[in-house]
Amino acid sequence: MSTTENIQSVADIARPKPLLIRHAPYFIGAAILVFLAASMRFDGYILNILMQATTFAIAVFGLSVVLGLCGQINLAQAAFFGFGAYAVGLGTTDYQLNYWLCLFGGCAMALAAGALLGLSTLRLGGHYLAMVTISFQQIITLIMINAIWLTKGPDGVSKIGRPSIFLSSQAYLAFCVAVLAIVGYLVWHLPDTRLGRAMRAVRDNELAAGVNGIDVFRTKIYAFAICALLGGLGGGLFAGGFAYISPDQFSFAESIVFLTMSLLGGVASPIGSAIGTGLLILIPEWLRFLKSVPGLYLAIYGLSVILIIRFMPDGIWGWVSTAYDRLRPPKKVMPSTAPLVLKPAATGDEMVLRVTGLSKHFGGLKAVDEVDIAVHRGGVHALIGPNGSGKTTTLNVLSGLYEATSGKVVLDGTDVTTMQPHLRAAAGLGRTFQNIRLFRSMTALENVVIGAERPGNTLVGNGNHTALTERALAALTFVGLGSRANELISSFSYGHQRLIEIARALAGNPTLLLLDEPAAGLNSSEKLELHELLKRIAAQGLTILIIDHDMTLVSEAAQHITVLNFGRRIADGESMAVLRHPDVVSAYLGTA
Amino acid sequence: MDLVLQLLFTGIGIGSVYALVALGFVLIFRATNVVNFAQGEFSMVAAYLMVVCAVDLALPYWLSFIIALAGMAVIGVIFNLGVYYPLRHRTYLPVIIATIGASILMANGVLALYGPQPQVLQGWFDTPGIQLGPVYLDNQYLLIIAVTLALVVFNWWFFERTMIGKKLQATSQDKEMASLLGISVSTMIMITFIYSAVLGGLAGILVAPILFVSIQMGATIALKAFAATIIGGFGDVTGAIIGGIALGVIETFGAAYISVPYKDGFAFLVLVLFLIFRPQGIFGERVAEKA
User: Fold this and answer.
1) What is the CATH number of the domain that holds B230?
2) Is the pLDDT of residue B289 over 50?
3) Phi and psi dihedrals of A398, rounded to 5?
4) What is the mean pLDDT of chain B?
């Protein structure tokens, strides 16, 4: 099967058939569904089930964004659903407002609540988010039940209005199906947009996302707010559909139902959401007898959650699509013919990086103590020292993963001392990690595209898909992996994964490249290739600051060496001189 | 002033319950890096076990107590084997989702078996309490405070002065190193789950005579206990206890002076304030992920 038909060129990846033609079947299918919903004669029971499935599915799409794409949990989707439902419910009855205004207001409220909740929690770990969303859900339920003046309490809201053009249930259902189709389309394509890629990067590896220029916090908030918005939209449509709402429809139990729907179908894709929603609305209808015992029903949900997570973590659709992908090997890619161009920015003086008096203390431990480093433009500068001398800590402070205790870091004329990692990336810093940090659920190409998207990268024009893909493919070709661009990270060897990480940093055209022990774990021939690669990078004028233990590599590649020991700088200068320096010799070999 | 003292006493009593559950949270978190969202259900299940033994079967109180705690130990084992252990090599997200599933399963399983009516459980003592000056000291509250104090001391002794406690600490700090030193990590995690389930169960049994025994009590207690751990500093044992007691006091005063229906909302409010202004809690220090 190694014929040409299985090989894609850059142009094929970057510019497939026009979007309109490729996606036409989806819209034709959606139009048929809308037409069927509008014209088929359903009895009331079927109509209710369809209405419920349609509006629930929109809320579950939200979970596929926040949980599936961005890896953040939301256990309050029913509360956001409630925002939309109560806005439409109370708005069209008590306040006699226009339906569209209410729907819009409900979505806006859910969006604002989601964003605020996210702002307060998303800087912290996922556990906080889980508990805070549960708490939020409980508060909203308390308000729905107790604030009778506003929500009418446990009695609920009845006689909820609909827009005048969709007064009949069938017409309204058709309208909901149309909304579902549009939202589904957007969610389906979100992963291939810049925001969607950022979300996936955050899910796979937050630290790596940050140093590649992604604003992790903001990306999470966007994901969370989109999820809340879709919850509100689904809820608003739901209220119009059923004309009656009450607090128990928006309880924590319902949030769990939404979660189960999402997990069962497959959290990564809107198709999975639709499958999960459909099944979990239909199955309970078939098993109505279970409802005679209170609790049994939700107990089964709880058990299913455990079983799905254990045995089918990707859900039904995830399982199907994995099986399908296994049958179809990834397409080989024609390596890029365009050479990778590196044009490191040069706004400052001859020093690319000036570190003065940098310290990082952990409690009483002075991991880095008053260190000065000056990196000349266009060379390879090595930072060496025995284990535990503070090299990686220094690199982490430089890239903003740790906050400096004191000192100053100036990158190409810009003071970046207090900047967050993504802003330092935007200022021109690229890096790799000692323990490889790639986005493991993505292909090599997607990883490197994220690198190419570095804010401040001037070599990708306006950042359109074609330019990014070409840039990424050129970077992969530069490290020798162009033909395997479409393979998932897990299919690459350890040494190749290191190269992909370097390609990811190179694609962003950084001003300074930090390499954290790139030779660690490589065999001797891979080390030679790495050395070769460093030479080719340096030949294009990109400045490298490298940490490594391999003295052969360091002494051959670097013109300038800084040596740390116990967090302090003990030597600095031209390579050969530094390596002969008595303090350095004693630090490495011990004193005689 | 009298009212303030009275509320303070009640607050510390109820806060002690939160502290015990929070302690269970923290121990599991330190051993496995996972927040167990079913921790509150341990309390609920234990309270129902008490109702079954002491009320339905009319067994002696002390015997019911032992049976209930033994039952919790068994549940700890099942929980570890069924929910945590199979997922131990995955990221935290699948594990917390599984514990949420387990929480739903336990709460609704009990509902299906026992029905929705809240149950009443008598306290340990026949006499209601003693009057000390202006403050009325309810016996059950006194018991809760005494047990919590005793457990705090026991906990310190257990973790700092016994070999098994040291092994548990080693496991929670570095599993790989611990197993290289011949510590059976899976046994240590099993012990942690059993201990946490029993702690949670104890809290549930102690608080049951004050509240009604209901399906919802687990979720409510878990929410408070989690807030307590954040207030105290995540992963910090002392912090969990102080945070729990502080939360009990805040909530009791809030209910007395501000609003009763929103009593359960104060925990959330305090939680959010802490998250915004002092996310590392009173005692905690935020630790960055190692790059």
Assistant:
1) 1.10.3470
2) no
3) -60, -40
4) 87
Looking at the fold, whether A91 and A237 belong to one and the same domain comes out as: yes
Query: How big is the CA angle at B219 (ends B218 and B220), to the nearest 5 degrees?
Result: 90
pLDDT of B138-153, one tens digit each? 888 999 999 999 998 9
Contact check, Cβ <8 Å, B268/A135: yes
Q: Give me the domain span that covers residue A484.
A: 379-390+418-589
Return the amino acid letter for B201: G
| Residues A567 and A424 placed together within one structural domain of the fold | yes
Mean pLDDT in chain A?
89
Whether residue A302 and residue B102 make contact (CB cut-off 8 A), yes or no, is yes
Cβ-nearest to B93 among A126, A139, A434: A126
Mutate to test the interface with B, among A263, A305, A432 (most CBs of B within 10 A): A305
Which pair of tokens denotes residue A571? Answer: 């030597």
Tell me how many degrees the CA angle A331-A337-A339 measures, rounded to the nearest 5: 125
Q: Touching check for B270 and chain A: CB below 8 Å?
A: no
Q: Number of structural domains, chain B?
A: 1
Q: Which helix (H) or strand (E) holds A92?
A: helix A77-93
- The percent of residues above 90 in pLDDT, for chain A, comes to 59
Q: Judge whether B226 is closer than 8 Å to chain A, CB to CB.
A: yes
Task: Identify whether B188 is part of a domain.
Answer: yes
Q: Does A396 touch chain B (CB under 8 A)?
A: yes
Subunit contact B112:A294, Cβ cutoff 8 A: yes
Residues 28-87 of B with CB under 8 A from A: 29, 35, 37, 82-83, 86-87
Residue B291 inside a domain? The answer is: no
Please list the residues that pair with B112 across neighbouring strands: none
Separation of first and last alpha carbons in chain B: 54
A187 with A44, same domain: the answer is yes
CB-based contact (8 Å) between A256 and chain B?
A: yes
Domain final residue, candidates A199, A229, A250: A250
Mind listing the pLDDT tens digit for each residue in A116-145?
A: 988 888 877 677 888 888 888 988 998 999
pTM of the model: 0.88
Local structure of A268: helix, strand or coil:
coil
Q: Is some CB atom of chain A closer than 8 A to the CB atom of B258?
A: no
Measure the CA angle with vertex A463, ends A457 and A465; round to 5°.
Answer: 135
Residue B128, domain extent: 2-277
A399 within some domain: no
In total, chain A counts a number of residues equal to 592
CB pair distance less than 8 Å for B102 and A402:
no
Q: Read off the CATH number of the domain in which A502 is found.
A: 3.40.50.300
The torsion region of residue A72 among left (phi > 0), alpha (psi -120 to 50) and beta comes to: beta
Q: Which of A195, A229, A250 is the endpoint of a domain?
A: A250
pLDDT of residue A215 exceeding 70, the answer is yes
Residues A237 and A386 in one domain: no
pLDDT for A6: 56
Let me know if residue B97 belongs to a domain.
Answer: yes
Residue A572 lies in a domain: yes
B90 min Cα distance to partner chain A (Å): 10
Give contacts of A 130-149 with B, CB under 8 A.
Answer: 130-132, 134-136, 138-139, 142, 146
Q: Tell me the three-class secondary structure of A222-248, residue by residue.
A: HHHHHHHHHHHHHHHHHHHHHCCECHH
If one counts the domains in chain A, the total is 2
Task: Decide if B71 is inside a domain.
Answer: yes
Query: pLDDT tens digits, residue range A170-192?
Result: 999 999 999 999 999 999 999 98
Query: How high is the pLDDT of residue B285?
Result: 55
State the residue for tokens 């034709």. Answer: A28
A397 touches chain B (CB under 8 A): no
CB-CB neighbors (< 8 A) of A135 in chain B: 223, 227, 267-268, 271-272
Taking the C-alpha atoms of residue B1 and residue B74, their distance in angstroms, rounded to an integer, is: 46
Over 80: is that where the pLDDT of A14 sits? no
Verify whether the Cβ–Cβ distance B35 to A131 is below 8 Å.
yes
